Amino acid sequence: MVAHWETPEVKAFEKQVLEAENQIVKAISELFRLEKILDDVCQEIQTSLGFDFVGVSLIIRTRNTIEAIHGTGIAKTWVNRARHYLEADVGLRDIQADIVKTRRTEIIAGWDSRFDRWIYDTFQHQRFRRIFTPILLVQDQAGKVNTNWFEQFDWQTRFKPSKVDENRHPTVIEIEPFSADTTFKVIGTIEAGYENSDRAISHETTIALAQLLARRALDIRRARLPYVLETIVENARNILDADLTTLHFFWEPDRKRYVYESRTGTIENPTLLREVQPRPDGLGWQAIRERKPKYIPDPSQGHTDLTLEQFNPAVYQEGARAYAAYPLIIDPELSFESQETILEAEGKVLRSSAVGVLYVHINRPGFEEEAQKWGNLFADRAIDAIWHAHTYQQMRDKTRQLEMLHSVAQSLSQIPENG
Fold it and tell me: Which of 336, 324, 335, 327 shows the shortest CA–CA distance to 382?
């Protein structure tokens, strides 16, 4: 007689979980390569296109900012100094934030009202001619990244200058949608140029830069926390044979939303995932508050086949017949006394937002007991992985903040005292 834990089904689950762990560990290891990747990208741009300097700014989601992270040439000097909020108000946006929001590429010589005056004057930017362009990813409706879109894209006709005020913008280039069922996602910007405002940046150079960035954006993506979360979501779907899995992490109290969201699978109405905020009585908040996975339907709670339709009609209408919520709580000191405490972000929740939830949807009745067990095990491993990835990213960001404070202090100390 074969022991229960030695059956082919159990061994298959064990193999899947082990393979998933290996993939997640590999994804976390990519975080340590970010500086090397950014340096390679800058060097490739500068060498192949002949620019005098190249700077990379990345979006820091937890602060809703775009920040200078790496640079070559004179762009090194404003690394860790330039940080700008991604303002919704157009009139308050810096140039980098505007590039993120509009997805436009701009070539500018001299002053522009969106520039930071202190940075512009301190580093004598009046002598530069620069190109600002977004670092783009293309995603389908399921959230999957298209890894070769730039090879199929018609750059000559769909990436072209638009008619603008020549006094303000020497060149503005709009990028048209790739297709009706895909979306552009901006993860950062590139600023490259010459220390001579008379040197022109041709449209051929602009296209070459955009193509190079589209390719290297995939490398940058793999060295960021969202890629770790994507890897977790994909493996959760495979292990539990789910139709849709979504992961939501790092609760932002002020906006009542999660900073990081990832999904994989099929759903007829993708906007449903983006537009619906966490419900006060939702399964995810129940799982977080009780610190344990929650299932619908759950026979132990007296649920029937109609429970899901009554509890969450939107999910039911999309085809799900059962779904689970696994809490992702990185800070063990957090306590949730009520749903209102979580949603209103009082107490510790306001100070620490490292909470999230992993949802698993299946279009068949119920989760078998074996699937629940392996789902619980995988969720525990996922929490450990997110903790390591999140902690490393926080340490890296704090190091950059200290470097920024040091460089700003040095600059202030060099300002002559006003007699």
Answer: 327
Cα–Cα distance between 193 and 184 in angstroms, integer? 25
- Over residues 191-209, the mean pLDDT reads 94
* Residue of 151 and 82 predicted with greater confidence: 151
pLDDT the model gives residue 74: 93
d(CA 259, CA 4): 41
Q: Considering only 201-210, 326-335, 388-397, which range has the smallest mean pLDDT? A: 326-335
- Distance, in Å, from the CA atom of 398 to the CA atom of 406, rounded to the nearest integer, reads 12
Assess whether pLDDT exceeds 80 at residue 163. Answer: no
Distance (Å, whole) CA 264 – CA 24: 16
Q: Residue 228 burial (CB < 10 Å; 0-12/13-18/19+)?
A: buried
CA pair distance 251, 349, nearest whole angstrom:
8
Please give the share of the chain, as a percent, with pLDDT higher than 70: 82
Residue in the structure block whose two tokens are 């980098």: 96
Closest residue by Cα to residue 57 from 45, 44, 66: 66
**Which secondary-structure segment (H or E) carries 310?**
helix 307-311
Write out the H or E segment, with its range, that includes residue 261: strand 257-265
Q: Which of 366, 331, 365 is nearest to 349 (CA)?
A: 331
Hey, which residues does 260 pair with through a beta bridge? 249
Q: Is the CA virtual torsion 47, 49, 53, 58 positive or negative?
A: negative
Helix or strand (DSSP H, E) at 185: strand 182-194
In 3D, which of 217, 221, 190, 38 has the Cα closest to residue 99? 190
23, 231 Cβ separation under 8 angstroms: yes
| DSSP designation for 372 | H
pLDDT tens for each residue of 215-235: 999 999 999 999 999 999 999
**Which H or E element spans position 44?**
helix 34-49
Q: How would you classify the pairing of strands 65-72 and 129-140?
A: unpaired
- Long-range CB contacts (< 8 A, 24+ apart) of 342-350? 342/251, 342/285, 342/288, 342/289, 343/256, 343/278, 343/280, 343/285, 344/253, 345/251, 345/253, 345/254, 345/256, 349/251, 349/253, 350/253
- Backbone dihedral region for residue 379 (phi beyond 0: left; psi -120 to 50: alpha; all else: beta): alpha
CA angle 327, 268, 356 (to 5 degrees): 15
Q: Is the pLDDT of residue 316 over 80?
A: yes
* φ, ψ for residue 162, nearest 5 deg: -105, 160
Rounded distance between C-alpha atoms, residue 203 and residue 206, angstroms:
5
Closest CA to 246 of 230, 265, 263, 225: 263
Q: Tokens representing 115?
A: 């520039």
- Cα end-to-end distance, the chain, whole Å: 93
